[in-house]
Design brief:
The protein is of the alpha+beta class. Helices cover 55% and strands 15% of the residues. A four-stranded mixed beta sheet has the order 2-1-3-4, sandwiched between helices.
Length: 154
């Protein structure tokens, strides 16, 4: 066997071993880190921000609207536009939490709020308890009514 072939085989073996070790490391730490019971991970900025907004709203006894959505479904896009429209009007009374379901950093929130389909709207009362959950697009008038009643109850 020539020297070049030996080096090529040695390189392939090294690559295979390194790939297996990297995969095992991901299996034991990567996925656990995303789904751990500790929600605050410094390398998961959006996730930390959403969790912090929810926790701060609870501490301030402020209701929250959590919108779980993606950028690819039409109903999600419509709900996000409604979210952006209402937010400036009610952000002093209600915390607005935007959660992109395609961001792996948000897996803890998806699991915690049992999100199975999108868009999902979760309204939390001033104690951080689920007040109302709805899957799908919501008419603006109905949503405004619910948000205003929730804001008035806090």
């Amino acid at each position: 066997m020539s020297k070049t072939v030996r080096w090529a085989i040695l390189g392939l073996v090294f690559f295979a071993v390194a790939s297996i070790l990297a995969y095992k490391e991901y299996q034991t730490t990567g996925s656990d880190r995303l789904l751990s019971s500790t929600p605050f991970q410094s390398e998961k900025t959006e996730f930390v921000n959403a969790s912090i907004v929810i926790e701060n709203a609870k501490k301030a006894k402020k209701p929250a609207w959590i919108l779980f959505h993606s950028q690819t479904c039409q109903s999600c896009v419509e709900m996000e536009q409604l979210f952006r429209k209402i937010e400036p009007e009610l952000n002093q009374k209600i915390a607005f939490v935007d959660v992109d379901v395609n961001d792996p950093a948000n897996k803890y929130l998806l699991r915690n709020f049992e999100v199975r389909m999108i868009p999902t709207t979760v309204l939390l009362d001033g104690h951080g308890e689920k007040h109302w959950v709805r899957v799908g697009a919501i008419a603006e008038a109905e949503l405004r009514n619910r948000l205003e009643r929730l804001a008035g109850a806090s």
